[in-house]
Amino acid sequence: MEIDFQAxxxxxxxxxxxxxxxxxxxxxxxxxxxxxDMFPYPSGAGLHVGHPLGxxxxxxxxxxxRLKGFNVLHPMGYDSFGLPAEQYAIQTGQHPAITxxxxxxxxxxxxxxxxxxxxxxxxxxxxxxxxxxWTQWIFKQFFNAYYxxxxxxxxxxxxxxxxxxxxxxxxxxxxxDYEKMFTAEEWNSWNDVEQEAVLQSYRLAFLSETWVNxxxxxxxxxxxxxxxxxxxxxxSHPVEQKKMMQWSMRIKAYADRLLAGLDDLDWSDxxxxxxxxxxxxxxxxxxxxxxEGHNNLALEIFTTRPDTLFGVTFMVLxxxxxxxxxxxxxxxxxxxxxxxxxxxxxxxxxRQADVHHISGVFTGAFVIHPFxxxxxxxxxxxxVLSTYGTGAVMSVPCGDQRDYSFAKxxxxxxxxxxxxxxxxxxxxxxxxxxxxxxxxxxxxxxKEAITFACQKIEEANRGNRKVNFRLxxxxxxxxxxxxEPFPVYxxxxxxxxxxxxxxxxxxxxxxxxxxTASGEPPLARSRKEDWNHFQGDRMExxxxxGWAGSSWYFLRYLDPENKDSxxxxxxxxxxxxxxxxxxxxxxxxxxxxxxxxxxxxxYDMGFIPFNEPFKKLINQGMILGRSSFVYRIKxxxxxxxxxxxxxxxxxxxxxxVNLVDNDKLNLQEFKNWLPEYxxxxxxxxxxxxxxxxxxxxxxxxxxxxxxxxxxxxxxxxADTLRMYEMFLGPLEQSKPWDTKGITGVxxxxxxxxxxxxxxxxxxNTLAEDPTKEMWKVLHKTIRKIQDDLxxxxxxTVVSTLMIAVNELTDLKCNHKQILQPLLVLLSPYAPHTAExxxxxxxxxxxxxxxxxxxxxxxxxxxEASYEYPISFNGKMRFTQSIDxxxxxxxxxxxIMGLENTQKHLEGKTPKKVIFVKGKIxxxxx
RNA sequence: GCGGAUGUGGUGAAAUUGGUAGACACGCCAGACUUAGGAUCUGGUGCCGAGAGGUAUGCGGGUUCGAGUCCCUCCAUCCGCACCA
Length: 925
Description:
Elements: H1 5-18, E1 32-37, H2 51-67, E2 71-73, H3 83-92, H4 96-112, H5 129-143, E3 145-148, E4 153-156, H6 157-167, H7 184-189, H8 192-199, E5 205-215, E6 220-222, E7 227-228, E8 231-232, E9 240-249, H9 255-260, H10 269-279, E10 281-291, E11 298-303, E12 314-317, H11 324-327, H12 333-343, H13 348-353, E13 361-368, E14 375-380, E15 392-395, H14 401-410, H15 446-459, E16 463-469, E17 474-475, E18 488-491, E19 494-497, E20 538-539, H16 546-550, H17 553-556, H18 569-575, E21 578-584, H19 591-604, E22 614-620, E23 623-633, E24 638-640, E25 650-655, E26 660-661, E27 664-665, H20 667-673, E28 681-683, E29 693-698, H21 709-716, H22 718-727, E30 735-736, H23 742-754, H24 772-790, H25 794-810, H26 816-826, H27 831-840, E31 865-872, E32 875-883, H28 888-896, H29 899-905, E33 912-916, E34 920-924
Parallel strand pairs: 1-2, 1-21, 12-14, 21-22, 23-30, 24-28, 31-34
Antiparallel strand pairs: 3-4, 5-6, 5-9, 7-8, 9-17, 10-11, 10-13, 10-16, 12-15, 13-14, 18-19, 18-20, 23-24, 23-25, 23-29, 26-27, 31-32, 33-34
Helix pairs in contact: 1-27, 3-4, 21-22, 22-23, 22-25, 24-25, 24-26, 26-27
The protein binds one RNA strand through strand 6, helix 10, helix 13, strand 17 and helix 16.
């Protein structure tokens, strides 16, 4: 008798559906556990084998926790706004909502075949109006809040406005980039346009001018990703930097809390470190340098090294710095302008990455050193970024390598302020040493000098201590169609919020999904009547970025149907935050940081009772594709096999991996694949086959290396695929996809089913008591699997199960008392097979998932003796079984008495014998 | 460039706290069975060597009785870098 794996997939999936087996509700008397996957973007290519990796792991863990008695919330949904659907819409005119729905349907079908235990009644889609209604609502909360720096939390704008009208901004503790002071009288005398302009500097969601990558030809803003060396990927048009009025979120107000909060999270050190670096806290000072010949014009710079103040030999402004136009002298005007123009064609990343190519121009202007009053030339160069610090630096070539290279390149002076340090070859960046050539800092240790310099700068009123963050406020508007519309309209140019009862503002229909001729976002194509609600002079034409919906989706799963609130208080109080979150580490600094930010904000506003969204995080590694290649002789339609290509000049071309088996190309299928290959000829290996080359790279449609799970599930069943993906290796490691090993896992499942057959091959098990050995195998297995799952070692569990089945097979174990608990151990990995065999044991249908995880008995595992490895000077020579109860001196005596020991000692007397109980004996001679 | 990670047989990997390197699989080799199959079972398989033995966890060094594991230098590969998701 054999199990039909395809049939049991269907049987049990239908059973779970009909019995609503995966639906969960709050149960006050049961501990909760929330297992979440990063929800996917439903792409047109469908689910590839990389997607389910994390989903399988989370499903196994969710099932494990259920067996352990937890009430497990395990939902799934779709991050369904995004560029690919929009691009497709631009090409075809098809509304992105339609393609998105089709893709979701396909995803769902593919997911369902893998037997996941998702509670689909809780599904969310970020692109559905019922969902984005609340994304819009949360945006309004950000707009109507400011960050109170004395209570260190977000507070309602009304409080701030009330303070302004009674005291002005004197004594207001708010996180803001507004620098001037105003009185209550002034505030009250301003009209609403003037007042709003000020309030924008306090709101947590606000409008401001931001730099963007602008492609004039496409009339659109591009991501760095969409640009290669200054040209758009689409169409190769020039791209330039341009300022644009955009919505942003004041995430910088949360920088310190986002940093501090990391300490208590059960995330990998790697990802915490990435977030720390992204936030990039650095302490230093802002210093003002007066510009020569310009009254009241002082250049503000930020430095982390005020101790090197006397090593400054030039200043560098970012090419976008607002001062440039004012200070540049007549004779340098043209040069600076040209430079700015050339820089505007480079993206920020190009500027940072290209350090070998040093560029910059002199402005003709000088600043005066605040202490020694020397003149210092002002340059502009693209290695200084306008987005960090003040967009200007004091250059200290002796202490900073970029400054050093710049000075060498343009032959600028270098002053060494480090005593006894050689800077002939390179700058000295360490913070250890003694300062010299530096007036009042002479003789001080660097760390003391930093403190003392800050003090002097503040005393002289030339600046102040300052904590700077690399983190920038998050730009929140996109000039795209397929995203959440803002709940915003404009009146007299003032942005205003649409009332809650008019939400959601639904995406209006447009005649095309492209920007307008004048470069306005696609929504500007809409007519007034295209909007479900229209107000004021016009609506907001931007849409929200991809990360808006994904910053809070984990909350909506708790209460997906709620019409009155984004999540009910009782629901969020029960389920709380996510206990285990699994997803790719490409989200390390984007999604994960934004979700933390929103969570902290919603906590501040009293909507949710916790301030971190994800307690435990696991980043699954990427599954890489194994691409296959053919080699075409240049200028011909002839393809040379791998081992013969060295004799020809060839081009390497990707070939669809589905045409290749074991690196051998199916020639007929290849000819049918693409019309241009129909007449292809081949130069084959000596054995008459065509051998393809291969490379491991990211799975992608364009590389023809995408592997979908569908065919494998079709062939082997869902359980085999689930186990195989886990068996590939540690979850967190990236690995190439290769199906060669899948037969091993499939064989294991078949071997497992054979334990349930009697000698005649019928489904029949023994009720009698198992032997001691059988019990030992079971309990050893229980313990190992529990240990492994508790440390998320999903791959070793598969091996453990294999070992158990191999051993039970050797023991000819057909005993129900062993097999029943074994099924429970198997069920998180192979739920269909486990339920089927459970039924074969004559137990109630569907009962395996409802069982309790078996408890191992230590007494079953006690060993009387241990096979000690005996090593000599660290090299293992032989093993010896020794009673574990023997005291150390008797063990050593026993060992020394062995003939084998004396042989290896070669007559020498041991200097030392290391005895580690239950581990090893090492004889040092 | 900056930040993060990973390097162990022909392949995926295991070794949880420094204690027998290569578990468990794939592949390969040999064999059994058989109305021949992508089935099942048995044995072997890091490398060199007939063997004793030697050697081996990216390279080089260090700490230790003992290092895949800890420390330092270097090399290679992968991921992220703010409008891809």
